[in-house]
Design a protein that fits this description.
20% strand; 7-stranded mixed sheet; single chain
């Protein structure tokens, strides 16, 4: 979807043109499989999260050194254009030309996506919108990976194989992007 920011209540946002692709998690797999690179990293992002704002520049700079495709996945409602605009402005401080933005489709909330045999997310920790979207992504992670509801989080896809790595919160380092995660990602990309 092509979007532009607008003024909302007392908040202001500088006019900004950007493209955000609305996806379901199966679409993310298609994006990764059609990439020109063997690996694609998807990083969940929430502008309101202090840890996310603090760690995202480290993640971005790290991913920029690797031979991968890199996308940012907003875990908010599609209709929250002011929030998306503020998020993009923050990310573009790192690279003014970055435009690989994804957002989970609001069809997550459609009744047909809530049928028991198609459970897409489990509610926990309250009804916050972001938690629903993050949990939806969590349910797409293979069982071999930690299921944690937080941002930032990197999912590493290998073309035609799916998710091969997902970061997890490291309590000892108090980070979502630990030195162990960095070492594992480098090892996967350069040695597999």
């Amino acid at each position: 979807m092509l979007c532009s920011c607008f003024n909302e209540s007392k908040k202001q946002c500088t006019p900004l043109s950007y493209t955000v692709i609305s996806v379901m998690p199966e679409d993310i797999i298609d994006i990764a499989d059609s990439s020109n690179t063997e690996y694609t990293a998807i990083c969940t992002y929430q502008y309101i999260c202090d840890l996310c704002r603090e760690e995202f520049p480290i993640i971005y700079n790290f991913c920029d050194t690797l031979p991968i495709s890199f996308f940012v996945l907003f875990t908010v409602r599609e209709s929250d254009s002011l929030y998306i605009c503020e998020s993009i402005q923050e990310i573009r401080k790192l690279n003014a030309n970055f435009n690989n933005f994804l957002i989970l489709s609001d069809s997550l909330y459609d009744i047909e996506n809530r049928k028991p045999h198609k459970t897409l997310f489990k509610e926990y920790g309250g009804p916050r919108e972001g938690q629903k979207h993050i949990k939806y992504v969590d349910n797409y992670i293979p069982d071999t990976f930690d299921k944690g509801c937080y941002t930032p989080r990197i999912f590493l896809y290998k073309k035609n194989q799916g998710i091969v790595f997902a970061t997890k919160y490291n309590e000892e380092e108090e980070t979502c992007f630990s030195s162990q995660d960095i070492a594992q990602i480098v090892d996967i990309i350069h040695n597999n």
